[in-house]
Each structure stands twice: as structure tokens, then as C-alpha cells.
Design goal:
This protein has 313 residues and is α+β, with helices and mostly antiparallel strands. Helices cover 42% and strands 12% of the residues.
Amino acid sequence: MPLTKEQLALRQGGIGGSDIPAIVGLDPWRTPLDIYLQKVGLVDPPETNEAMDLGNRLEPVVAEIYAEREGALVAPPASIYRHPEHSIALGNPDRLVWLPGDKPESPSKGLEIKCRSIRNRDRWGDPGTDEVPEEVALQGHWYGMLCGVPFDVAVLLGGQTVQIYRLQRDEELEGQLLEIALKFWRDHVEPRHPPLDGFLTRDALERLWPKALAPLRRATADEIDLGLDLARVRKELKKYQEAEERIAARLCASIGEDAGIESEEFRATWKKTASGGTDWKGLAESLRPSPETIAKWKRPGSRRFLFKSFDEE
């Protein structure tokens, strides 16, 4: 279910289940820096796209299928869970699960619901096992720590099949996740010190430093090492790009007037495209837009990274 504004505000004040995989470095889509930027208010929560919207709409359906298969009662939690000793550790699991004989105040387990493309099928193991993607497992164990019960995972794959997985409590792992979360909050969020030792995206970095405020300066020893590494990588990359172009040209010459070639190992085609694309600049100039119209459609400027190795001169 989509979170309310109040729930989103609460999540900004702590580490949630969807945050912990990124902080650990096992989220395929987000980095520790992305989480930091959200917690300190430098970026808004991600907007709901079509896939997320469909997932939210299908979540009750998957929950109902799970309940029928398990002979269980499922319901969303009444409120966000918080760790009894560390309030920054919080979570909003999808469902709680009551099996026959459970007391109303004591659900047997929790349930996380996922909707995934069939292309991700190889990331899910046999139903009934705990073989789920790492980021899903970490989220489930985080909620297990907060709720005090094991979590199941129900995934709708490709809109075609619902598979159920079982995660058992792992108190050692739960303790490690809590330590990592507390350290992240203490070392980065509270002192406003961004985590810059992992994978970084230029978009996230520009959120931190949108423009240059100081003049060019001398590089530090660490920066010199980074610059030399970049120069070396670019030199190697250029060498491989040139080799790629030479080999591709030789293959095209060999293909000649055929549509392409194939073998057990590869396929190579050389065909004419239906269109060379649209010359948007030429189209815009032919329409003779006014300076006011041009100004209206100008994109805001951004910081541009340029690097030149003096060895190349």
C-alpha cells in the first residue's frame, strides 16, 4: 500500500526496511548516498511510477491469494513499528499474519509482498525456501527484528504466478543490520556527513554540491591518485574502443551485401534502419521560434565534469 504523508514524514526520521538494503550496499537501484539525501531532506521521496502504482494496486490481490493458500488471516499493521531501544530503527511491513489459534495481539508471522517482472525469475529460488533476492531478504529480516516474528514473502512474477517463500529469524543477522543502521545514522545523517566511500552517481553528487563556490585549487595526494587512475582507465578504454571499431569494420566488410551472420556463439547483423531519426534542432529552426519560446524550453544548467590528462598532449 502507498504510504501516507504522515508515514513518509516518520520514515524520514529513521531507517526503514526499504532503506536497509541500500545502506548495506545490496540494493540494485539505490546507494547509501541516495538514502542519506532523502534523510537530510535534499531530495523528495521517489514519485510513484506506473510499475509502482500497479504493484500497490495488486498488493491486496496477492495478500488474498496468500491468505487462501495458507488458511490465514492477513491485515496491514495498525501503525509503524519502532525498535524499543533505538527509535531510528523503524518499519512498515505490508501485512501481519494470524494462523488458526493465534491470539489477536499475537500474529504468527509477517508478510512482504512483491510484484516483479518475469525477467527477474532467475533471482527467485524454489517456492517454500528462503531463496529470495538479497535486498528482499534483508528487508524481511529487518521487519522480523522489529516485529519479533518470522516473515514470509509472496511474489507475483510477471502477473502470472504467485510464489511464497519463508524467511526464518536470524538474530545474529538482525543485530548486524541494526548496528549498520545505527552507525549510518550516527556517522552520516546526524552530522550531515555524506557517505562517499561507495558507488556514487553524478546526479546524487550534484544534489550535494549544485554549483561551484570556490576557485580552482591544488589537488591533494588522494585526489592525485584518483586523477591518475581516471587517466589510466580512459587510456585503456580508448584503446579498447579503437579495437572494437576496427574489428566491427572488418566484420561489416566480411558481411558485405548479406543481412548478417550467425554461429553458435554470436549473431552479427548489418542492416539499414528505417529512419535516421529526427533532426530536432533543424526542425526547431524551421519553425522560427521567438526568443521567449526558446527561453521557456531551456533546461536548467548543471555541473559539468571535465578531465584532461596532460600526458595526452
